[in-house]
Amino acid sequence: METGFDVERIRKDFPALSRELPGGRPLVYLDSANSSQKPTQVIETMREHFTTHYANVGRAMHVLGAESTEAYEGARDKVAAFVGAPSRDEIVFTKNASEALNLVAYAFGNPAGDDPRFRIGPGDEVVISEMEHHSNIVPWQLLAQRTGVTLRWFSVTDEGRLDLSNLDELVTERTKIVSIAHQSNVLGTVNPVDRVVARAREVGALTMLDASQSVPHRPVDVTELGVDFLAFTGHKAVGPSGIGVLWARGELLEAMPPFLGGGEMIEAVWMDHSTYAPAPHKFEAGTPPIVEAIGLGAALDYLSAVGLDAVAQHERELTGYALEALREIEGLRVIGPENLDERGGVVSFTLEGIHPHDVGQILDDNFGVAVRVGHHCARPLHLRFGIPATTRASFYLYNTPAEIDALVRGLHHVRKVFA
């Protein structure tokens, strides 16, 4: 397989990929949908800030404080450019995508907010899907418990696609928000956002995307997508953990109540009431993840230099190669689309008669192949397919066809062990 992508040069930027595991096994890292490895450029950027420029942001009237604030706010500029945000003030730093999703869910039905778009209660509805990560299910369940709103969801077809056959019946004038994954972390399915957004607009509903599995892997432009909110996380985008992003249209951020209270998010405080800073700082209470945000900015610089179109094409070719190679393995069932149409670089599967935990353990112990096993924080999706868990291999810009070959050899060995 020839991808035309200089993956060997890229691999040299990621120190972990040269690691030798016990027994002399090379590391084969196929778990980037869980968390990606980090390039030297990100590691060194964070190290330099910690050692030379570190101070709190937005507070200190000295050189280090100014340097730290400039770098932190510079990272906001980079994120805004990366996702096509019309304004840097539409970028809110959170600790991860889960917090970003919770922040939006909190805005609905909160007495502190009086905008009718966020006023919600019995008779109103929120729409999600059966393929969501728990982070895009549980916050809406909590909202339903708190307000009496009805939670509804799109089902998933046998092929692992979002079932939009009842789109008009599911998204109605009672719908306040539709919140779905841009790409499934289990199925790899890339959802038809345009159809969902068009219907939501018809009925006056807001739309939110969990883009944790799409922003790191392909060009994403919030203006082109036409959504109202978008969340993603740094640790899946060759950046550090502890930093996430919420993008939202500026007028919505201004209308939303604060999520957390504390320093920096205020305009003025009296003993009986407070006024709040404009967005985005209204949602960034306390000392933020300063160096993590700067690391995320460096990560997005790295991905931009490589080119997300090239990354997406490389992953597409790897995924096609993997889907073809996995067909050789007796008893293997891919859960999700078995072709490349509207599909990302995530392949989840079962092996007949063998628990995924055993599959993952043997791959790791004998072949140095790191995959994810379990329900991948998407238990309702696994219940829909009648299975307790899957094995998931996920690919990124630094993976190679040879690593997929190692996975296939390992799976053949698993079959022999359990024969």
From TrEMBL:
<protein>
    <recommendedName>
        <fullName>Cysteine desulfurase</fullName>
        <ecNumber>2.8.1.7</ecNumber>
    </recommendedName>
</protein>
<keyword id="KW-0456">Lyase</keyword>
<feature type="domain" description="Aminotransferase class V">
    <location>
        <begin position="28"/>
        <end position="407"/>
    </location>
</feature>
<dbReference type="Pfam" id="PF00266">
    <property type="entry name" value="Aminotran_5"/>
</dbReference>
<dbReference type="GO" id="GO:0006534">
    <property type="term" value="P:cysteine metabolic process"/>
</dbReference>
<dbReference type="GO" id="GO:0016829">
    <property type="term" value="F:lyase activity"/>
</dbReference>
<keyword id="KW-0663">Pyridoxal phosphate</keyword>
<keyword id="KW-0808">Transferase</keyword>
<dbReference type="GO" id="GO:0030170">
    <property type="term" value="F:pyridoxal phosphate binding"/>
</dbReference>
<dbReference type="InterPro" id="IPR015422">
    <property type="entry name" value="PyrdxlP-dep_Trfase_small"/>
</dbReference>
<dbReference type="InterPro" id="IPR000192">
    <property type="entry name" value="Aminotrans_V_dom"/>
</dbReference>
<dbReference type="InterPro" id="IPR015424">
    <property type="entry name" value="PyrdxlP-dep_Trfase"/>
</dbReference>
<dbReference type="InterPro" id="IPR020578">
    <property type="entry name" value="Aminotrans_V_PyrdxlP_BS"/>
</dbReference>
<dbReference type="InterPro" id="IPR015421">
    <property type="entry name" value="PyrdxlP-dep_Trfase_major"/>
</dbReference>
<dbReference type="InterPro" id="IPR010970">
    <property type="entry name" value="Cys_dSase_SufS"/>
</dbReference>
<comment type="function">
    <text>Catalyzes the removal of elemental sulfur and selenium atoms from L-cysteine, L-cystine, L-selenocysteine, and L-selenocystine to produce L-alanine.</text>
</comment>
<comment type="similarity">
    <text>Belongs to the class-V pyridoxal-phosphate-dependent aminotransferase family. Csd subfamily.</text>
</comment>
<dbReference type="GO" id="GO:0031071">
    <property type="term" value="F:cysteine desulfurase activity"/>
</dbReference>
